[in-house]
Inverse folding.
């Protein structure tokens, strides 16, 4: 048979205009180097020593997030964990197996030292006043390219916090080194088993029981309905030691380890893995305790109070996860639109696109400073500031609700800006959207956050700290001061209202308060360098708050929008 050489036409050479994006298209090769907003904040609010120590790690992670992690994340997402109930000989093993990409992603996370810098004793001592800023910066960069594994990462830091604050010294010495290890084989990840069928968000309705076995060891029995990171080596679970004591007052907290001290497996049946809409790379399960050995932490009846330490930290992680995925969606849309030719010009030249990007960049910038203000506040609270601890009681649920809802909106809008290609699973946008949809739900849905803010406004000094700060920052805007005055008056009247009126009023009230607080923070954090993105964000949100009537609008220029996005292709 004769060999015949076929010459196929090269479409792009014959028709150079037949492209999705122009030949000049560039995308970032390092998410840390590209992000002017993140770098500006960190340089300003962490020490020189911390910068020198962490910057090389952020450089490495920024490159991995831009160049390697998307493929790994897609592989882990398309090949979710598998539950192996029994081995070849019919023995029950309840093993969860992951795609190799999941383990590679985990190694990238621990190499970034998001845990080590916080929990390794020497580093913890050296950077005591800025531990959360350093750890969350790594988590932020990691979250730009992977949305499933951040849940186990969050839980791991959370169990470390509980062990450090409440466990016995022997447990700290034995377990914490596994959390700050840089060796994947030695790493222990964490989990919080909270939710049950009967209760859901109503934790006080939980039924799982705990019966004292020996000393401070108990045997736990019952079902946990939603157990994320079900393969964790360290689990904190709530259980009821006395069924006669109802509500959260009857709950105690227990440290459950995957293996007992003799090396044998602790009893826990994994019924099934959850088939989730998003965050599919990590394992969420339904689990049954049958005489599962757990160690009482604290005193009986203190469980929910202790667990709130982990819950509140996880709400902050939730916000940072939303922020990082918002950032990724914004820069994906921006890089695409910059090189997408539409009606003869770059898509960025179209006023409606610039107007939408202005809105989304404003939401992102406001959420950025709200989130990092909370992180900064947590660092101060952990270093003994009682005022910052009081502020966090209100700020944490406010941030969680605000950031999670903003993330869903911003990513959906970015997807639309990209058109049909934004909906295609080859790219990151669909996965970003699916993964972000869980954030308004997990760690307390929006309505639960409203109720939590109501409790915090009554039981903490948060409002008394917020109001003077906002009045000072917004003093030059009379209509904003009037808004604040109205909000204060409503808060004063709330205790006299019936329950239905109070709760129905609370949601729009706190949403308005959050927007005003974001405006105050933009004013507070504005300086000579960040004005390029802070000033237009403030002005946009101010106009949104002030104006309800139709009027003529002048969009920002391409250059002004690009300055707002503060992203340099690097």
């Amino acid at each position: 048979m004769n060999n015949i050489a076929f010459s196929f036409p090269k479409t792009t050479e014959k028709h150079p205009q037949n492209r999705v994006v122009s030949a000049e298209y560039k995308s970032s090769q390092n998410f840390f180097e590209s992000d002017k907003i993140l770098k500006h904040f960190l340089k300003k609010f962490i020490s020189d020593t911390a910068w020198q120590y962490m910057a090389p790690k952020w450089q490495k992670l920024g490159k991995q997030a831009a160049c390697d992690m998307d493929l790994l994340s897609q592989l882990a997402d398309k090949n979710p964990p598998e539950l192996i109930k029994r081995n070849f000989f019919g023995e029950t093993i309840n093993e969860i197996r992951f795609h190799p990409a999941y383990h590679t992603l985990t190694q990238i996370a621990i190499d970034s030292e998001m845990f080590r810098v916080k929990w390794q004793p020497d580093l913890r001592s050296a950077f005591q006043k800025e531990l959360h800023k350093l750890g969350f910066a790594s988590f932020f960069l990691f979250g730009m390219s992977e949305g499933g594994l951040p849940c186990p990462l969050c839980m791991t830091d959370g169990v470390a916090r509980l062990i450090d604050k409440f466990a016995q010294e022997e447990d700290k010495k034995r377990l914490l080194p596994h959390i700050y290890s840089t060796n994947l084989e030695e790493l222990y990840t964490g989990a919080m088993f909270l939710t049950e069928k009967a209760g859901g968000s109503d934790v006080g309705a939980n039924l799982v029981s705990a019966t004292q076995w020996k000393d401070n060891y108990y045997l736990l029995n019952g079902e946990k309905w939603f157990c994320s990171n079900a393969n964790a080596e360290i689990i904190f679970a709530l259980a009821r030691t006395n069924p006669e004591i109802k509500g959260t007052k009857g709950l105690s907290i227990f440290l459950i380890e995957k293996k007992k001290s003799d090396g044998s497996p602790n009893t826990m049946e994994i019924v099934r893995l959850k088939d989730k809409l998003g965050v599919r790379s990590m394992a969420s399960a339904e689990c049954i305790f049958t005489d599962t050995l757990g160690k009482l932490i604290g005193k009986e009846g203190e469980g929910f109070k202790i667990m709130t330490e982990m819950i509140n930290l996880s709400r902050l992680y939730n916000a940072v996860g939303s922020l990082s995925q918002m950032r990724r969606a914004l820069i994906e849309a921006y890089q695409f639109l910059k090189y997408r030719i539409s009606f003869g010009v770059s898509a960025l030249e179209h006023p409606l696109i610039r107007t939408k990007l202005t809105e989304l960049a404003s939401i992102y910038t406001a959420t950025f400073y709200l989130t990092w203000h909370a992180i900064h506040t947590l660092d101060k609270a952990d270093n003994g500031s009682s005022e910052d601890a009081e502020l966090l009681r209100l700020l944490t649920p406010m941030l969680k609700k605000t950031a999670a809802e903003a993330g869903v909106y911003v990513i959906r809008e970015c997807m639309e800006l990209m058109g049909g290609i934004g909906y295609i699973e080859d790219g990151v946008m669909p996965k970003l959207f699916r993964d972000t949809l869980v954030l308004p739900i997990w760690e307390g849905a929006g309505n639960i956050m409203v109720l939590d803010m109501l409790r915090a406004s009554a039981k903490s000094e948060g409002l008394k700290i917020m109001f003077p700060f906002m009045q000072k920052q917004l003093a030059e805007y009379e209509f904003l001061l009037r808004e604040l005055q109205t909000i204060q008056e409503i808060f004063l009247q709330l205790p006299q209202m019936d329950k239905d009126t109070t709760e129905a009023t609370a949601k729009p009230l706190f949403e308005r308060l959050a927007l005003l607080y974001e405006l105050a923070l933009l004013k507070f954090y504005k300086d000579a360098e960040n004005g390029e993105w802070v000033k237009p964000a403030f002005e946009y949100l101010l106009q949104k708050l002030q104006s309800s009537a139709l009027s003529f609008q002048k969009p920002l220029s391409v250059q002004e929008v690009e300055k707002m996005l503060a992203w340099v292709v690097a």
